[in-house]
Amino acid sequence: MVTHVPSEAHGDERGALLNFIEAQRGALRRSVTGLTEEQAASRPSASALSLSGLLKHAAETELSWLRMAQQRPNERMNTENAYADSFRLKEGETVPAVLDFWDGVAKQTEEYVRGVPSLDDTFPLPEAPWYPKDARVSVRWLCMHLVEEIARHAGHADIIRESLDGKNAFELLAMAHG
Fold it and tell me: What Pfam families does the database record attribute to this sequence (predicted)?
């Protein structure tokens, strides 16, 4: 899991963007290191957020943005309750399964970003009250938004994890690297 993206590691703009996305994924993924399913699902504050819910939400949100860019329907967001359900594991879902799912989404994201002719290529945003009418964004914007989205939730995860057992990001990084 990438934690620091050195300037020489990415090679080009696409590589840099993908490495920064992966660094934020790693920060969020590390938040569940050494926890049980119950601990990962717990909500140690007034917030409704849990670590396992944040993992699932980040993975499903990345898939949603990828499907928008590909102009394909999102198979995971097919019910009225899908957004709310993205913040919690449902019956039969586990942290390892969510992490595996996210690995697959990450691979698809990388293939898409590496495969588009230009980071300036644009795609339309769906009609929604929170998007301007006929809004379009570029693949570069998509990558920057994924960094922003995942980093926001990695910060939430830091606070939740410290509330659970006092472990901070540096301790989790040490645990992850043995």
Answer: MST
